[in-house]
Design a protein that fits this description.
This protein is of the alpha/beta class. The protein is built from 9 helices and 15 strands. Strands 1-8-2-3-7-4-6-5-9-10-11 form an 11-stranded mixed beta sheet, with helices on both faces. A 4-stranded parallel beta sheet has the order 12-15-13-14, covered by helices on one side. Strand 10, helix 7 and strand 11 form a beta-alpha-beta unit. It is globular, with a radius of gyration of 19 Å. Bound molecules: threonylcarbamoyladenylate and magnesium ion.
Length: 311
């Protein structure tokens, strides 16, 4: 059931969540498929609905930074990062407290914590006395949903309620940072950029350089994949001979069958998942412009590489 956001719909969402049901809701990044993160039975429903591997842990969403302390240890680094970037598109991996079920943390001794800035998400979180475990509200492996209709198309009736709060402003998932140590370890690039982390912390470590155990389990799986092949393209490179559609910064190449073009990197990031889903319907190769690995471009390039099957 899909409903436009309003006080009654938020109250219904909170009631369903308290009864262990799944409720999809918008955040500033992508739509999340929420459940009571402290209820192992409710969390199991998320894995089943998404077809998600059980060792890929979930993010707990909180109404405010203070609430994180009920589930995780705020390290000095975490406090600094939280002061600078929360609420916002940043997720901190922290030592978990025993109240967090193993299902939520995929069997790890850490738990991922985030305080979204989206007002709909925050209003919903304020109505429930527990954090919401919420992965992106897509079936596992597909591009993430940035509007409610896409959630409905992907998950159907698995969510008891889909709260429609319009399109997501950022359109790419949060930056995931391991904040258990003294320096931030980037596990997934996102809306908070490496440059911003660097400016605050002086140094940023990358998951590739740390041991396997600290890597983000989710990054091991194929992700963001449409039903047709995706080929990455940089300005100046040749276009393929075969029929293709194009997504990237304007202008569209004259030889593409159809194109999703954007005027800015920010718009491209916000629209990239919807573009993948729209263009796959043509059934031909998608040529996707790869932005440089800087600022928000790093997160967008990461998702495009994954949708193209490159790591
Ligand atoms: O923007 C977002 O973060 C969205 C919205 C809904 O908040 N959520 C989201 O969740 O992207 P999901 O489940 O699609 O991605 C969570 C990522 C995965 O890569 C997962 O492996 C990683 O966070 N993660 C979660 N818990 C972790 C942990 N304890 N240690 C390392 N990585 C963790
Ligand atoms: Mg996801």
């Amino acid at each position: 059931m899909i409903r436009s956001v309003g006080p009654d719909v938020l109250a219904l969402g909170a009631k369903l969540l308290a009864h262990g049901e799944l409720v999809a809701f918008p955040t500033e990044t992508v739509y999340g498929l929420g459940a009571n993160g402290l209820d192992a039975g409710a969390v199991k429903k998320i894995y089943a609905a998404k077809g998600r591997p059980g060792d890929n842990p979930l993010i707990l969403h909180f109404a405010d930074v203070q609430a994180i302390e009920s589930c995780a240890v705020m390290t000095p680094l975490a406090r600094r990062l939280a002061r600078a970037f929360m609420p916002g598109p940043l997720t901190l991996v922290l030592p978990a407290l025993p109240c967090v079920p193993l299902q939520t943390r995929g069997g790890l001794d850490t738990v991922a914590c985030r305080v979204p800035s989206s007002s709909v998400a925050r209003q919903l979180l304020a109505l429930v006395p527990f954090p919401l475990a919420a992965p992106s509200a897509n079936t596992s492996g597909r591009p993430s949903p940035t509007d409610a209709a896409t959630v409905q198309a992907d998950l159907g009736e698995a969510a008891a309620l889909i709260i429609d709060g319009g399109p997501c402003s950022l359109g790419l998932e949060s930056t995931v940072v391991d904040a258990t140590g003294a320096l931030p370890v980037l596990l997934r690039p996102g809306g908070v950029t490496v440059e911003q982390l660097h400016e605050l912390c002086g140094r940023v470590l990358f998951a590739r350089g740390v041991d396997e155990a600290r890597k983000s389990p989710g990054t091991r799986y194929r992700h963001y994949a449409p039903s047709v092949a995706v080929r990455l393209w940089r300005p100046g490179e040749e276009f393929p001979e075969e029929p293709f559609s194009f997504m990237g910064l304007a202008p569209a190449p004259a030889c593409s069958r159809e194109a999703c073009v954007f005027d800015s990197l920010r718009d491209y990031a916000a629209g990239c998942y919807a573009a993948l889903r729209r263009l796959e319907r043509l059934g031909v190769l998608i040529v996707a412009q790869l932005p440089p690995d800087e600022g928000l471009g790093r997160a967008l390039a990461d998702r495009l590489r994954r949708s193209a099957g490159q790591e």
